Amino acid sequence: MTDTRRRVKVYTLNEDRQWDDRGTGHVSSGYVERLKGMSLLVRAESDGSLLLESKINPNTAYQKQQDTLIVWSEAENYDLALSFQEKAGCDEIWEKICQVQGKDPSVDITQELIDESEEERFEDMSSPGLELPPCELSRLEEVAELVASSLPSPLRREKLALALENEGYIRKLLELFRVCEDLENREGLHHLYDIIKGIFLLNRTALFEVMFSEECIMDVIGCLEFDPALPQPRRHREFLTTTARFKEVIPITDPELRQKIHQTYRVQYIQDMVLPTPSVFEENMLSTLHSFIFFNKVEIVGMLQDDEKFLTELFAQLTDEATDDDKRHELVNFLKEFCAFSQTLQPQNRDAFFKTLSNMGILPALEVILVSGMDDVQVRGAATDIFSYLVEYNPSMVREFVMQESQQNDDDILLINLIIEHMICDTDPELGGAVQLMGLLRTLVDPENMLATANKTEKTEFLSFFYKHCMHVLTAPLLANTTEEKPKSDKYSWYTHTKQSLHVSVSGFAFLDDFQTCQLLALIVELLTFCVEHHTYHIKNYIINKDILRRVLVLTASQHAFLALCSLRFMRKIVGLKDEFYNRYIMRNFLFEPVVKAFLNNGSRYNLINSAIIEMFEYVRVEDVKSLTAHIIENYWKALEDVDYVQTFKGLKLRYEQQRERQDNPKLDSMRSILRNHRFRRDARTLEDEEEMWFNTDEDDLEDGEAVVPPSDKMKNDEDLMDPISKFMERKKLKETEEKEVLSGKSSLSGRQSPSFKLSFSSSPKPSLSSPPTASLHPGSPGSPGSPGSGTRSSPPTAAVTTKVSY
């Protein structure tokens, strides 16, 4: 079959509650005589064998998930699923199932819409509730069957829950459990397991309150130890009473709070360890259990938060230097759990929670924890988690605290520097804690979450503080691990093995190249890259003054590709800014040299390093960064000219040659700019400016002779020329009418000829502002085009237009 709409995978749920793939095929629906009803058939696409034959039972609960999945249970502990390749096929089969069951295809769970038969409806109307069998040892099997049969129907579940609640049935069942356990009645214990598990699936808060009460909860856990599927019962009660011990780091005097903490721990244990893994349907039935735990945690946090005496004692012991290490360890773990519980609070309540902790001095306490727990891995981990809760909740609160404490404390004991020190000193080979702390530092220096008010800007204040007091701590490993070597008598080798680790020497710099050091340097360079992107003059001044880019580019020689790529990303981010301050810094220090060297050392290998370096040069070429283009070609062309599998470097050379050609021949550059515009026309604003200058000139300031418009550097067509000439002629005619007599008098007195106005437009280069115009204002001067004394011209003017007007 080629219809991909019906293409499915068949899954079954195994004993470990994992889905097993039974094969891929095509599904269809039809009447099967052997099953006496409409059925789902799946035949393998490989050989046509039958993978699934399942009758669509009117009482079976089918569930559609994620638009392409249909799940159902055919028997106890036997769940099936069809995963469709296309949504359309899933919809078709779902409509068939709903058609057989008489349901609306718009629903996702047919079970929720199961209608009672007319007979059941009559029974429900006539009987006020469900009648439970007497709670006796001989009737346990009957009770278990009643509970199991009630679960599929929402209405029967409701009636069963009411009956259990009203008759105090659960306490009677737990009394029977103690009897069965004393008599070692294994069959009765198995029935009680099924009954209690079914009561959990009724999803009723009122029943949970009875089951989780102080006198009942351990017996409930005892019932769930006797799973019929296991050969031997589990020992959950033994673990809870002997192994798990409740520690009070600070004495809790409120008995209600103590009871609530015990209850929450045990219910959480039931959910995570005692109850079997729920099926896809049972998960929805346990939603009230999740809510029960959730609201218990909210109550615990609220009660502790309101107990000022408790919190005051907690922080007093945390900050007391006399507190021993074991006690501080317990206090830190309690504070971590306390903060973790707060994540269940609503935003408004969470705000109040962290404000309370802030007022109690959690940040100064955290400093003490970090200083005293440097050698304790668990304390460091707990402190990191607490700090992450605070930063994620309100980074501005943390920034304000560290700026205030900088006015009183030395840089070494500032909270943010302690965090950086913990990151640098992480002993984990994979630097898991360092990665987490680096993410928190990035959040703190991110301008996007900084506040700006009318009186002050948090971004300016905090970044100035960070670069003054903290940046040198952050970059210390980078500067220390890229130290400049002293000259030696022998030649440097690229790789020199020592007893401790591999050292790399390049361009007079050496650095440790072991994995853990490289991981740390990569984290630092990544944060610096983030700073280049989001900070402005702060990071620019720091990079240029401390020569950071040179140190980072030393890392391109690392044997670890991830570190070399980090250093290239840093360089690429700087180049991408197209900032001439950075460009001059790069050129002055020849910082493309390590990049070119890394490219050549990479050889013909086609990998990320090769691609990253080529992309950087391609960016310079495409963006036409002129200063860097000239620097690269003038200094590294001989090393790169043989690279012909990409056109990047030849394209850079072409850019460079075009740039030089434009510098040597400005006239050619001007013509190219005209050709790029696809028309021979000056900007309209330029024309208007020149016309305004012309007409603002007083006639009396002109000597007798010609008045010549300064030549333009661009060619014009006749239509472009005539427009300003027409305006000029109209204005002159108006002036002629008003001043005719004056002009005639001046002419007769002077005895000179009438002035001849000549407008010359040439394609010759435009004169500079400091040089006089090339055409003389005197009509009789030698060499003036068209003047009476010029005689025969040696060569005709290029593209010249001359208009004479005689008065």
Automatic annotation (TrEMBL):
**Stretches for region Disordered:** 692-807
A molecular function annotated in GO for this UniProt entry is: protein phosphatase activator activity
Q: Describe the location of the Serine/threonine-protein phosphatase 4 regulatory subunit 3-like central domain by residue ranges.
A: 142-658
Q: Ranges of Basic and acidic residues compositional bias?
A: 728-743
- Kindly list the biological process annotations in GO that this record carries: DNA damage response
PP4R3 EVH1-like domain ranges (all copies): 5-101
Which InterPro entries does the record cross-reference, listed alphabetically?
Answer: ARM-type_fold (IPR016024), EVH1_PP4R3 (IPR055236), P4R3-like_central_dom (IPR006887), PH-like_dom_sf (IPR011993), PP4R3-like (IPR051137)
* Comp. bias (Low complexity): 754-773
Where does the record place Acidic residues bias?
Answer: 692-706
Under the heading Gene3D superfamilies, the entry gives:
Pleckstrin-homology domain (PH domain)/Phosphotyrosine-binding domain (PTB) (2.30.29.30)
Q: Which GO terms describe its cellular component?
A: nucleoplasm; protein phosphatase 4 complex
Q: Which Pfam families match?
A: EVH1_PP4R3, PP4R3
Family according to the record: Belongs to the SMEK family.
| Function text | Regulatory subunit of serine/threonine-protein phosphatase 4.
| The protein's name | Serine/threonine-protein phosphatase 4 regulatory subunit 3
